[in-house]
Amino acid sequence: MMKTADSASAGTLLTIDDYQSPQGWRQPADAKQRARHYCDQLEQGKVLFFNRIPFNFPDENQKFLLSQKQSSSRLHKNVSYRPKQEKLRGSAGNKEETARLHAVMRSFSQETVKFLSELLQPYAAHWTLDFASFRPEQEKGRDLPVHKRNDLLHVDSFPTRPMHGRRILRCFTNINPTEARVWHTTDTFPALAKNYAADAGLSEFAAKGSRRSHPLVRGVKKMFGLKAVDHSAYDRFMLRFHDYLKEKEDFQQNCPKIRLEFPPGSTWMCYTDSVPHAVLSGRYALEQTFIIPLHALVTPEQAPIRVLEKMTGVPMAAPAMV
Ligand code: SIN
Ligand code: FE
User: Fold this and answer.
1) Number of independent structural domains in the chain
2) What is the CATH classification number for the domain harbouring 27?
3) Which of 119, 93, 5, 106 is nearest to 57 (CA)?
4) Residue nearest to atom 1 of ligand 1 (CA)
């Protein structure tokens, strides 16, 4: 059964109208309480939505991004910006264009950070800034291997950046002047875990625990110049769960779907480790990722790691890492 009614998407989308750009909060005296409320709503699996871009994003920067040539590499069409290392990846232009692209991505990242420092003030002192990206490719009809397909419902996990239970928060902006970005979503993580975690092997991942890889394996990786990243049981399960959901045709075809349309010039954010998402169509979106530690959350017991630990009865990451 396909749920596409507005009432279904209204339950997932929370439109914010008491924070605007550049003024900020409509009632500054209530800022603290409103910010806490929005953190709480995100943690409950809501998608926060603005029908305008709620931070400074100059027109000329948007026009520049829309005019960019695309990289010819099929799997690396995105531009990524790493704020902590000040690095840009995926530019297809010459030296000057690359420098401009770098500056535009830096500005987007900084403005998003400024905006979320106010909107989600309880998180701001605690988050780790992750990558930002620009997604110029039309999502509809992309020909990708199944685990890389973003038009299949999934929750996010990063192979190279273990979370140890910390949360993945992403803030998106659609700069396409005419076309919406269209997502599907379905029931959030607690329901997905209840229905599918056991079948995806949760108890085996929990039983193996969070031991570091064998010193020999770490040594060999080092020899080849690879970083030996330590994945917790939580990370190993979440990586598997991402692939499991994409592979599972019955789930992809038959789960109840809620269609979300993000119009030109809109901004939205959610915890993508808990809100399942599939992008069906759209091009020219930007996104900045934040990593939120559990101690910064308003309701840490709703975090996926806590949901899984409740099911398995064992810790799935070392407490010091969360
Ligand atoms: C994703 O699956 O994380 C991508 C969503 C998007 O690009 O809209
Ligand atoms: Fe995703």
Assistant:
1) 1
2) 2.60.120.10
3) 106
4) 150
Spatial distance between the Cα atoms of 206 and 183, rounded to a whole number of angstroms: 32
Substitution candidate for ligand 1 out of 49, 287, 290 with most atoms within 8 A of CB? 287
Q: From the CB of 193, is ligand 1 less than 6 Å away?
A: no
The verdict on residue 56 lying in a domain is: yes
In tens, the pLDDT along 275-300 reads: 999 999 999 999 999 999 999 999 99
Is 111 in contact with 55 (CB distance < 8 Å)? yes
Q: pLDDT of 67-123, one tens digit each?
A: 987 666 555 679 999 999 999 999 988 899 999 999 999 999 999 999 999 999 999
Residue 245: inside a domain: no
- Which residues keep their CB under 5 angstroms from ion ligand 2? 156
User: Is the pTM higher than 0.85?
Assistant: yes
Q: From the CA of 279, which ligand is nearest?
A: 1
**Does residue 138 lie in a domain region?**
yes
SS3 percent helix, strand, coil of the chain, rounded to 5, is 40, 20, 40
- The whole domain housing 129 covers 2-188+256-299
Both tokens of 31, joined, read 């800022």
Measured in angstroms, how far is the CA atom of residue 299 from the centroid of ligand 1?
A: 25
